[in-house]
Design a protein that fits this description.
The structure is a single chain. By secondary structure, the protein is mainly alpha-helical. It has one domain. 62% of the residues lie in helices and 11% in strands. It has 3 helices and 4 strands; from the N terminus they run H-E-E-E-E-H-H. Bound molecules: zinc ion (ZN) (2 copies). One zinc ion is lined by residues 23, 25-26, 28, 43-44, 46-47.
Amino acid sequence: MEKLNLKKQKCFNHGEREAVAMCLQCHRHFCRECVTKHDERLLCNNCLSKIIEEKKKKKVNFSFLKLIILYFATFISLILVFFTVYICLNQSIKSQLDLPSQINTVEEDK
Ligand SMILES: [Zn+2]
Ligand SMILES: [Zn+2]
């Protein structure tokens, strides 16, 4: 008797229709029209849209994180390049200052 009753479950969305499947997510019964196969699992449209939305959110977050990492990497490499150029310039200025004192005095006279 109980098995027969289970088979006569009505669709959660359509009270007049007989349910043919149960959603694995919310365990409600639905008619053929209300369930969709997703990753080899039967889900109702409500649960399916929720899962898709969550996946979208995760995707957005992931790409956002990637963007931050990319910006950070670019920023660090820029700093490194700037620092290297700064050190090179500093060294060349120092070597110029180490030049014979004649040039220095000429420049000071200007
Ligand atoms: Zn569901
Ligand atoms: Zn239905």
